[in-house]
Here is the input.
Amino acid sequence: MKSINIKKLYAIHSWVGIITGILLFVVAFTGAVAVFARPELKIWASPEIRTPAQVDPIQVERLVHEYAAMVPDNHFDAITIAMPGMRSATALEIRYEYHGHDHENGGPDSVIQYQFDPHSYELLGEKQGDFETLFDDYQYDMADFIANFHADLHLGRPVGLLITGLLGLTLLASLVTGVIIHRKILRQLFTFRPFKGFSLLMNDGHKVMGVWGMLFHGLIGFTGAFLGLALVILVPAAAYVSYQGDMEALIEDFTSTPDPVIAHIEQPTQIAKPLQHALSYHPDSKLRTARILGYGDANAVIYSNLIGGPQMHTLILEHQGASGEFVQAFGNYSKIEGVSGIVLDIMFPAHFGNFGGVLVKAIWTLLGLSTALLPLSGLMLWLERGLNASQPKYSLQTYQRFNRLVIGACGGVVLATAQLFPLQLVLSFTNLNLANNQLVFGSFFASWLLCIMWALVRFDAAHTVKWMTRLTAGLLLIVMPLDVLLTGSHLLNVLSTGHYVSVAVDWVLFAIGGLLWWLSLRWKPNSAAFLSTAETSQLALSAQLTSGRVVEEKQS
Amino acid sequence: MIGVALLVSLVLLFFACRAIRSGGAIATSASPWLVALPLFVGGLALQIWATGAMTGSFLFLSCVSMIGMLAAFSPAKVK
Here is the structure.
């Protein structure tokens, strides 16, 4: 390729990175944490489900029948059973749904939800409302907060989804331009020189993460763009073209769980047998929800939703309601023939790595962190090249100011995420009755903003990075002792408490905290972008003196 | 079962990536590749055995991405 085209592509690569780099870091970093949000961090944050519960299908069947007798007859359009600790449910939830049947005239939906203790099956709470208001008073914990922040930055639909979707596209654009302009891919595949200066560390790190993680970054960019833009652009556009704007009709046509044809012959619905089959379907699969359609009818159907296991996509098991017999297993989009159905089915698990168990999640988190570090190292590299150029495009102060903004925004989001862990322990395991949502949202955004201000006001960037890292490390290191203090749960009594997930989370956070502290001790960037104000003035003075001497020599 | 198979294949892939690393680049002579090839094939075979052809191949590519990165970051003499 002509060098002029390479230069143009390099300019595109740089400017896309400069404009979107900080936001891309924020979304990718929170995505790496969000991989473990559900169920691991959810379990860690919720005292009710820290001890694993073996839900008994016979008890579930008893509860469904018992409470079905108490709800109005029109609330059997669907009955959903949500397993505790699988997504956002911290209890066993049974929902009786009325779907209105009069949507065209604005007919209301109605849901009656019962929550049960997954160990004793005692009723914990009851709620009634439509699908939108039922979760109005939902109390966010840090797991929900991080997962939703990654999805739409808490800006809601369509703005938030649009931004994250477009970020996926810019990641793809950066990847393509990066691969074309980086012409020595194979020669520098293993080149990493961490001890030969800050500039080489950033340069090599950026290339190693970019080249080795190319497929993964591409996958994340593509699936992220799809998940972000599908609901706000793709589905409405397709519905407008082919379904007169009826999105529900389009989704119903594409998904593989049709409503049964009601026979109007009363027959009790078997629930325990299908649930038992779904729970033992594969040793690595987990039952997330079960949905009963046509409850009490001879043609009733039960769809069980399984995640994990050998297949990448979510698996749906279909059972006959009347006999409890297994009918078939399929993916959510298996109705669509060819490769499109498979691609749609694996879109979500491929983005979040929630298939094949916890080790796959760990791989996704590490690769996700490399996706986050890619724009950060790119920004540092741009600063280094700008500062070391024979004729820098901008002044030293401009580069330093931009560097401080990058440090504040990127380091700030890491610190803001870290402070959510000790805060969550205080919220979940003390009787202070603090306002959950306000504290989780407020502390995250306040600490992030404070970090940005700290970095911008404090003129010693190297010092800021060091102390921001130490503060983050400190916040992560205190999680385990705080957990022991508040809950009494630790490694030595894990066999009796059964808190395997939460103890593992504590130890992983402790290890990350230790690693960050160690890195802060070794942090000595040899770069003009990290000079303090005094050092910058000294540098400018010596540059003036040198140029003055040169002028004097020339005059003499 | 999937976890154990994945863990073993990650170890195999790490040794394979270390074997084909020659200084700061990919080895160009045949002998490191002859060492690495069975390790790569073993890693792929284990993942396909544990999770099936499609998931296994997909997982294999992701694992090579991560392990290759780790092998590049691990200390070695680079000119």
